[in-house]
Amino acid sequence: MPIMDINATAITADAWIENLLVPEDAALKQTIQSAIDADIPPISVSAAQGAMLHLFAKSFGARRILELGTLVGYSTIWLARALPADGKLISLELFERNARLARQNLESAGVADKVDIRVGLAEKSLNILVNDGVEPFDFVFLDADKVSYPLYLERILMLTKPGSLIISDNVIRNGGVVDPENEDPAIRGIREFMDMLSANPNLQSTVVQTVGSKGYDGFAISRVS
């Protein structure tokens, strides 16, 4: 089957899955629309992926969640809705404009009281969390700039504990990660990140490849032991 046909079929299948199992409510739809209106790239997770994150966090009993990459709050809403009444989510976002929209969207979704968005370089925000000695996070969703994934992983491991779950997005890069000669900075960052997962004896990891409305990519799933 030609690749374009595969992509078209995957997008259609995603729409079918989402309509059947994970229909978006008004708050989620408005969150996506807010990005379109602000001319922000449509790089949030899909509804099916958001639901997957929600199910993982809820089944895992996560009480403290760390997210790297808020954008306009779409994945943040899915994750925050998985938290118990006393749960807390800290989300790191580089751009103030994105954070401002995200706060509005979180308010509309009724989860703003559970989320603390911190604006600035993720490395700096992570260092502050480490230096402050915050309570470890049960669940981490990494969806920020791919070049810095290795650095982020180092800090994340300082902020988690045995049993914590780390889900990292965009680790397949349309298959580009299998080419060791690829000079794309994002792919080089992901390859180094994957090598770190493989070499760390305190991480149990796998990757689930994904194809759908967001193209061909994948999630790395790691458990801290």
At a glance:
By secondary structure, the chain is α/β, with parallel strands linked by helices. It has 8 helices and 7 strands. It has a 7-stranded mixed sheet, sandwiched between helices.
Question: Any overview of this molecule?
Answer:
- By secondary structure, the protein is an alpha/beta fold.
- Helices cover 45% and strands 20% of the residues.
- It has a 7-stranded mixed beta sheet, with helices on both faces.
- The mean pLDDT is 95.
- It comes from Ponticaulis profundi.
- It is an enzyme of class 2 (transferase).
- Its EC number is 2.1.1.-.
- Keywords: Methyltransferase, S-adenosyl-L-methionine, Transferase.
- Catalogue the unreliable spans: none
- Kindly report how far apart the N and C termini lie: 42 Å
Quaternary class: single chain
Largest sheet: 7 strands, mixed
Strand order of the largest sheet: 3-2-1-4-5-7-6
- Please report the first level of CATH classification, the CATH class: Alpha Beta
The structural class is alpha/beta
CATH architecture tag: 3-Layer(aba) Sandwich
The 3D shape can be described as: globular
Q: In percent, how much strand structure appears in the residues?
A: 15-25%
Tell me the number of structural domains.
1
Radius of gyration: 17 Å
Helix segment count? 8
- Number of DSSP strand runs: 7
